[in-house]
Amino acid sequence: MFRALARIAVVAAFAASLHAQTDLARLGPQVGDRAIDFSLPDQLGRTRSLRSIAGPKGTMLVFFRSADW
Q1: How many angstroms separate the CA atoms of 6 and 26, rounded?
Q2: What is the C-alpha to C-alpha distance for residues 16 and 51, in angstroms, rounded to an integer?
Q3: Per-residue model confidence as pLDDT tens digits over 9-67
Q4: Taking the mean position of all CA atoms in its chain, how far away is CA 68?
Q5: How many CB atoms lie within 10 A of CB 14?
Q6: Are strands 47-49 and 39-41 parallel, antiparallel or unpaired?
Q7: Residue 39: which of 51, 54, 57 has the closest Cα?
Q8: What secondary structure, in 3-state letters, does 1-68 show?
């Protein structure tokens, strides 16, 4: 049991050090950035592009990380 707790502590310390080294301001798209036009299949298998679903005021993309990842 002690070994398992020691491993958890090492992994937690390693994860914390990685997080501290990551510059989140440079990671991925930022709020207000313009997205490139892309195409992906919708839930019915039809290909949709960002341009094809944009309304007169544009489109808001929301990225949500699922707990299943």
Answers
A1: 33
A2: 40
A3: 666 666 666 556 767 677 777 888 888 888 999 889 999 998 888 899 888 877 777 77
A4: 13
A5: 10
A6: antiparallel
A7: 51
A8: CHHHHHHHHHHHHHHHHHHHHCCHHHCCCCCCCCCCCCEEECCCCCEEEHHHHCECCECCCCCCCCCC
Q: Name the residue type at position 47.
A: T
The pair of three-digit structure tokens given for residue 44, joined into one six-digit string: 């019915």
Only one residue has tokens 């990380």, namely 65
**Tokens 């997080």, residue?**
19
Distance CA 30, CA 24 (A): 10
Both tokens of 68, joined, read 């299943």
